[in-house]
Amino acid sequence: xxxxxxxxxxxxxTVAYYMPHHGVLRPDSKSAPLRTVFDASCAxxxxxxxxxVLSNGGVIQDELFAILLRFRKNGIGLxxxxxxxxxxxxxxxxxxxxxxxxxKESIDDSIKxxxxxxxxxxxxxxxxxxxxxxxxxxxxxxxxxxxAASAVSSDMYMDxxxxxxxxxxxxxxxxxxxxxxxxxxxxxxxxxxxxxxxxRFKMLRNEQ
Length: 208
Hints:
Elements: E1 4-6, E2 21-25, E3 34-38, H1 50-53, H2 64-72, E4 76-81, E5 100-103, E6 112-116, H3 126-141, H4 146-154, E7 156-157, E8 160-165, H5 168-184, E9 193-196, H6 200-207
Antiparallel strand pairs: 1-6, 2-3, 4-8, 4-9, 5-6, 7-8
């Protein structure tokens, strides 16, 4: 899927970082029974790690409490996520030598040097990059999908979406636009679910 590529150059670049990594077995998981964990906080001989020199980019998403409050106000709730969100985002080629790893296909295979092409979970800036890509997606293509653009701008928490609409027809329209918008960004819509909210407070307010 192009997540990483082998490095064939013999000489080392001026700036590079090698991330330690290990596998975590999760036999009960159907989607990822074996997950690779990268340690970008491992210090080098200089005493610095990749994470220690990276900027985290700041927080550009709304607080979860505010998202939950808005979610609860909907007549129909819609919950979903983006599949493997970090792995859908390419890293600029000039920065990939900072995401190097050593790799063996098998015990008897020779050690290879590879570099990651996509955002790596565990790097300080990964959450910011994911959210910034979504904002750019809305700026680039949101005008074609206004319902989805509004939801992505205000109702995303990392790769999770908690949004909704007044009725089931509007909720289905929203879902279709979200799928189309994410597809424009090369992202896959995950499992979704609709919820019917019986909002007593809203009903009482309407009766007054």
